[in-house]
Specification:
With about 300 residues, this protein is α/β, with parallel strands linked by helices. Helix content is about 55%, strand content about 10%.
Length: about 300
């Protein structure tokens, strides 16, 4: 028996144990059904994902607490995955700067095979833990950083290798998978296993597993940013106004919080270089732009704390 044949049998044996790879005999004739019925069946499958995520909310919250503590000290949040999982991590990371005005280097998405793998398959990249180590070594990890390995199967060598390397460097590690008792969760300090069950199309983990991963990544980044003071209530007061829509949203947020009229909102934003939190502080505390900036800096960017300090 050749080594490649042996490896293939080992891999097939592993896949046979994964619920995300299980065959659904009741769907064996799905291609013969009317389109409307297929759509209803698929929608019913998707409706189960939120419940699977809900079962892991305590584990997700515990991970967020640890991530936020490190990011408050200047640490970074790094996602590492292959294929769909890697793309979802890159997507979540790329949306943090416009949403929360974070430095692009603070939330980072790594995908096995590099940027080209966002749109094409990079042969063998997901099978290389060494590639994950190289990608993370280039970042110069510190104990204040967090690495989240993302893998539907929970066995992808790139994701498991990323977590193992990060943990060895003292970084916080989180393993997000969609199978129980996964190697990824075992390798991480915080294991999050969202068991969504067999896919509508056998083994197509871009479906329910991908949806579950997107929901969890939404929670990890969004709630971490709430803890870091990037919101005021449920308003994105750190939004970066990089286009006309976001500039309109900035004006709307300032008006919602302060009750000020259009002219006053425009003056406050002009005095603070378009910074929403600063403009709110100018209007509510009656301070100038530089004072607003100082108060927010002293409050580590938390608007409520800055308002309290201004009031005192």
């Amino acid at each position: 028996m050749t080594s490649s044949t042996s490896r293939d049998r080992d891999l097939r044996s592993q896949l046979d144990t994964l619920t995300t790879e299980a065959f659904r005999p009741e769907l064996a004739d799905v291609d013969r059904l009317p389109t409307l019925e297929i759509a209803r069946l698929m929608n019913a499958e998707d409706a189960t994902v939120a419940g699977a995520v809900a079962a892991q909310v305590p584990a997700i919250a515990a991970a967020i607490v640890a991530i936020a503590e490190r990011m408050a000290r200047g640490g970074r949040l790094v996602y590492a995955g292959a294929g769909t999982a890697g793309r979802l991590g890159v997507l979540d990371a790329s949306e943090c700067p416009p949403t929360f005005n974070t430095d692009p280097a603070r939330v980072v998405g790594l995908i096995a095979g590099g940027p080209d793998a966002m749109v094409t398959s990079v042969e063998g990249a997901e099978d290389s833990p060494e590639l994950a180590e190289s990608d993370l070594a280039a970042l110069g990890l510190t104990p204040d950083d967090t690495v989240v390995g993302v893998s539907a199967s929970g066995r992808t060598p790139y994701a498991v290798g990323a977590v193992a390397y990060a943990r060895g460097r003292g970084a916080l590690t989180v393993g997000l998978s969609c199978n129980r008792d996964s190697a990824l969760a075992a390798a991480a300090e915080h294991g999050i296993e969202v068991v969504v069950g067999p896919e509508f199309l056998t083994g197509s983990t871009r479906l329910k597993a991908g949806t579950a991963q997107k929901l969890v990544l939404n929670m990890l980044s969004t709630i971490t940013m709430i803890r870091l003071g990037k919101t005021y209530g449920n308003l994105m007061v750190d939004v970066r106004a990089s286009n006309e829509k976001l500039r309109a949203r900035s004006r709307r947020i300032v008006a919602q919080v302060t009750g000020a009229g259009d002219e006053d909102v425009e003056r406050a934003l002009a005095a603070t270089d378009g910074e929403v939190k600063h403009a709110i502080l100018v209007l509510l505390a009656g301070v100038d732009g530089p004072t607003a900036a100082r108060l927010l800096d002293e409050a580590d960017g938390h608007l409520r704390a800055a308002l309290a300090a201004a009031g005192s």
